[in-house]
Amino acid sequence: MAPQNMPAVSIDINMFWQIINFLILMFFFKKYFQKPIAKILDARKEKIANELKQAEIDRELAAKANKESEDILKSAKAEATEILLKAEKKAEERKESILKEANTQREKTIKSADVEVQKMKEQARKELQGEVTDLAVKLAEKMIAEKLDTNLGANLLDNFIEEVGEEK
Asked: What pLDDT does residue 138 have?
């Protein structure tokens, strides 16, 4: 038997009909289904593109809102620091005011106490002079009562009266 050479591509009748069926199917697909499917694909492509654009816009808005919130937070921190500094300054001023008022009150109290002490000293001095005068009068009465006629008694009385007179 002689070797039969087989052709590189053999097309038999079944393959021919399959190719014809495929071409008819492609014709119907192109005529009836290509435009609706293309519209659906284009609509889907447009929807995806719009969603991507919206996502980009949303991302930019979120970044902007994040930056604004950071700025607000920074300004709030700065404002809080400023408020604290003002409060500390007010507290320091209030402290100084209270200390000044306390010192003024202390000075007034010291002055009034000094005036009171001076008054008490003056009153004590007057009372003491009154008592000394009373004692001198009593001594004089006693001496007169005993009728001291001697120079010694008279000299004692004169000396005592002169000493009391000098203290006034």
From this structure: 81
